[in-house]
Structure formats: C-alpha cells, structure tokens
C-alpha cells in the first residue's frame, strides 16, 4: 500500500473518532431525555459506540502491524463511508435536535418524528449497519492473526531530532520581549524542569511565536532535539505522540502503538540525555488535556515528560490553563502587535508603497491583531484591492465588518492547513465558554452592545436577581482568561473585533437573541443612568460621564421588531440622558431627546400618565427657559392642567410646572400675569417644601427674572442674593446649580452702575469656578466669560477685556465641547468682540 493510502486511512479514522464521539454524545443525551424516538434512531444510538470502539482497535492493530496492506486498502472505502454517514447524521441532528432558545422540546420532537427525518435516519442506520457487517466479515475488530513482534527496545539517544511539521514563517516580525520572557522562564535552578506557557487571544500569534522559537533554538543549540505536539484534542495529542515515537524509533511497525505515549515519555525522561524542547500547542480544552483518557487509560497531561534537560513550551488561549501547565512559572501573555511590528508585518506581506499613515489606519481598525491583519491582506491580494479600497468597504457598517471577519483564507504560515478566519477562530472559544460557564457566555453577549472600553461592572451585574458575587467573578474571570475582556478597577474593556465576532456568532446560533441581548443592555443602562434632575447628587456628573457613551450606542441600535416594553425603556433613557447632556450644555440634543421621550410615552401610556408628564415637563422647561420658544406655552398649559387633575394642586411636580408656565407666559410680554403665577408657585412651594428646598429656590430665581423684566432690579437682586447664599450653604460653592445662581446674581448686579466692581469680581470668581468644574469650553463657562468681557469693555478696561478674550479663546479651543453648536456660537461672539477691541471699539451687554 502506498503512503498516501495509509495516511488517508489514518486520517479518516481520526476524523471519524472525533466526529463520531461528538455525534454519539448528542444522540445519547437526546435519547435519555425523550421517550418514543424512532426505531432507526435507537439503532444508531446502539451502533455508534461499537463502531467507534472498533475503529480505535483497527488503528491499534494497524499500528502494531497486525493488518496486512491488502486489508488496509480494502478498509479505506469502508472507513470513509462511515465518515460520510456520520457527517450526514451530524448535519441532520443540527437541524432536528432542540437547542437553546427553542420554544419547547416537544416542537422539535414532532419535527424529528416527521416522515422526512425518520426516512433519512433509517437510510443512515442501514448504511452504518452494512459497514459494520463488512468490518466484522474481515475480522478487523479481533485482528488479522499476524504474529506480534518481540518487544521492541527503544534506541538510545544519538543525533538530535527535528520533528516540527511546519516551515518557518518568513513574515514573522518582532516579539523580542516574548522570546526574552521565554528564555527567562527556561532559566531554572538545579533539579527543576524549564517550562513556559504562552497565552492570549485566539489569532494573537501564540503558535507563531512558538514556531519561531523552535527555529531560533535549533540555530542556537544544534544538539537540541525539538518536538511539536498538537494538544487540541485527545486524538490529536495521541497521534502526535505516536508520530514522534515512530520517527524516533521508539516503536516499530510491528509493535503496538497503544503504549507509544508512555514509551516516549520514559525515553525522553531517561534515555534522551541531551537537551530537548517540546512545544505542546493548543492546550485550550481543560477536559481534553487533564481529564479525558487516551487509549492507554492515561490523560495527555499524565504523558508529558518531566526531566531537567527537557524544556516544555505550551500555548493556550486560556490564562487559567497557562497557570496550571506552567506552574510554578507565571504565564507569558501575548498582546497585540506594537505599531512598528504591525507596520513591518503589513510591509512584508502586502506589496505596494503605501504611506505609513494609511497602514496605521488599517492597523487601528484591526486592533493590531495578527490574524485579523493577515486575513485582511489575504482579501486585498486575492481581490486586488488597495488598503484605501479595503477600508472604504470595511467601514460601511458593522454588518460589513463582521462579514469581513468571516472571510476564510489559507495561510501557510499558520500551523494548520485548513481555511482560517477570525470569526471561525474565536467561535471555538465562544462555544467552549458557552459550554463551560453559561453566565460567562451571557456576559460576553451583553458586553457586545456597549462601547468596547470603559464598561463599569454595574452594567454587567444582574440588578433584579440576587446574583452571587462569586458567580459574576467566575464568569468575568473566564472571559479574562481567554483574553476577551480586560479589567481595571471594576471597569471592563474588550476588543471591537471581539464584539463584531460575537454579534456574528449570535446571528448564526440564535438570531432572535441579538435583539434580546440588545434589550438587556438597554435595560441595564436605563435603570442605572442617573435620573433627570434640576438638583443633581454629588456623583451625578461622574456617573453620567461614565454611562453616556454606552447610552449613546444602545440608543442608536435598530431593533428588528419594536415592542411596548422596549419603547418605554428607551423613553426612560432618552429622558435621563437628555437631562445630563443638557447639563453639559448641549441644549439642542437635550430638546430632541425630551421630545422623543414625550412622544413615545404619550403614544404608549397616554398624556396623563406620570411618566409622560415627566417627559412633557422636561420638554416644556427647556423650550421656555433656554429656547425662549412660544411652543412651550401650549405644552406647559396642558401639563399644569393634567398634573392638577392627576396629582393635585400642591404636588411639588404641579408647582414646578406652574413656575415653568409662568416663565413661558413672560415670553409673550405679559409680565404681570407671569409675576402673579410665579408668586403663587413660590407660596405653594414654600408652604409644602420649605424655604430652603431646591424647588422653592428655583421658583425664587424665576420670580427675580420676571421682576427684573418689569424694572425692579433691586428686589430682583435681593432675591437672587438670597438664593445664591442658601444654595451655596446647601450644596457647596462648586456645585453646578450654585454656579448658575452665582452667574445670575453677577448679571443682575452688573445692571447697577454702583455695583460694577462687585459684579466684575463675582463674574471673575464664577468664571474661574466654572472652568474648574465644567471646563473652559462649556456653554455656562463661555456665557460667564462673554458677559465679563463685555462688562470690562463697557467700564473702559479695554486692555483687560482684550486679554481675557485671548485667554478664553486659547483655553476653549481644545476642550471636549468645542464642536457643540452652542459653544461655537459663544466662541464666535467672543472672537467678534476681540476683533472689535483690536479695532478700538466695544460692545454691549450679552
């Protein structure tokens, strides 16, 4: 028999053993849970384990030389036929068996019992039965009667062995610090075995580093033997050990391979006296490496050789596994490529004189992950695309990005010959996590709908259920072990590519779960975003700043089917986040959110529901106070009437809306009616809430505004002074609400010529405090700055006013709010004043 036939038979047996074991387990699980399954299905349940056991024996007999060449040639179509039937059965089970998310087992069982499935199963059962009879006829299971050879004596060590089945990667770049870490780990004391474990995200380059280290080690020490073991499954581990044992002469064609692993272990520990290095690659499945047994009754971990002259280098996706296999050495975590390494990799693999900035654009999109970079380059080369063309296509949408991650390619530099893709590589990890810890899989799905950085733990923890802290920690630890997330002081982050691949996986596994997890994310943020308030708590701004990026992202998500529950939760988040962005000076965005929230709640709950009235109040308030829009009048009139009917005259919310309505009335020029309404609101608030309550103080502030409009500045200034002092006493001098009152008082004082200096000093203090608390480019800060600049100019302090203009523009030019339209308006106003001052002119009060 030619070597190709022998290799094909061994490969077919190996594939059938791996696939057959998986199918047999699924069949057994389903059979134990359901009664009344088809007769042919029961037959398969009985026959599969027998076929698996028989083929394992066949392979052992072949390895021992107990089956002649003619019989082996005859077995090739039999085994490949068994494999084909197993693959067909696996596909059928994928469609027929219940999976997570199905409405009921009964529904799938009914489908399974349908005539079409039953007929297909009978056909598979008949085929497998025929193949089984063929195997029995040839007496394969019991051996072919060849005489066993005398026990083979393993040879003593002579020349070094090079049993690494992969060429060197000509595109390998960098990683010098990793090689230094490996050498450091291999530097051990007398009597200790050198060990190191590389861990990191799938596709990050662990196997590539190990492969490059093998070649460097051979060049450095030509006496060192180097071996490569694939530990992805028990079958592949055993096959690797058998191959090494055969190549080293430890076993012969006439001897049984069943003991090869232990013979190799003993030979390396005792007879191989010179240095050796063994790479144990892909130790990702803890069960396969530490618990599942090989044909000799030992686990792979029990067959790892241990001696001082042998070095072990493991690769694994799991940091936890790395701890276990490398103990007492610490795992060596492989991270993304550095900027220079990424640049070198692209230049090595992609022809063309691309500018560095364009390559860095590509690398940033792909987060410097080697497999993602290689995948993108393979696409560009095959499709004859430039980097710019690739980026334009890639950036079209998240769906497009996810599709690119599924693009399969053959990379001969990787230690596998099958087609690869980022999504396919990570899917293995996703499925392992799902099967190992459901809470961790849920966590990964939830994280998918947040911004990929700055995710606080509170967004990921169950709120409604009494979740054990340890359960959450275990779930997060598993994701960290696989490098899918990082954690720093209870704040998590992930790769954007991991999010895209997770979304693709969800779409493939259970499409309806995409919306389900998006809704879970929406509920998590909505329930934790600080409530809309005119008097925020001390941690309001810090929490809002943390949660806003995640709120922005989930509010953009397009649900496939909207429901009342979804829309009402969204309305809640629109209202609360709208109030926060309003505090940050983005009044236009806030108004848009208040309006959306109001419209959703009015449609779903009616205009007199308390939640609808809350959104209605926010919309009317911002239209009246900040936009000076007469639309506020009709909205607030309805709101006051609704709240009086539902909540009563003296409810604080009714009083608050009455005060806002009075402000809207002032927009019409009817200051007398406005003052009357403000005084009524103030009297009610003081009686119900007290003088020092924030709502009462707000009513006082609104009353002062309408008094000023009627030419009563002294009374207005007295009221604003009281408001400022009480708020400062209650909240502290740096609270944003206090800073607004401080500015209002300065503005009122500036209208009195006798209090110009007092007003200027108060403006200066207010500007300094607002820069400290809100930032130099916040609308509130710029409002104060502009009014101070104008007051200085009108007081003939032109040089000071001009200097202040330059300082304000310089400090605000790079602030976080510089692109806010309202901030831009103020900056243009200040720039215009600066220009007039430079020309020798001045301006009036803002």
UniProtKB/TrEMBL annotation:
InterPro entries: NLR-like, P-loop_NTPase, SesA, TPR-like_helical_dom_sf. Pfam families: SesA, TPR_10, TPR_12. Residues 12-135 form the NACHT-NTPase and P-loop NTPases N-terminal domain. It comes from the Eukaryota. This is Short-chain dehydrogenase.
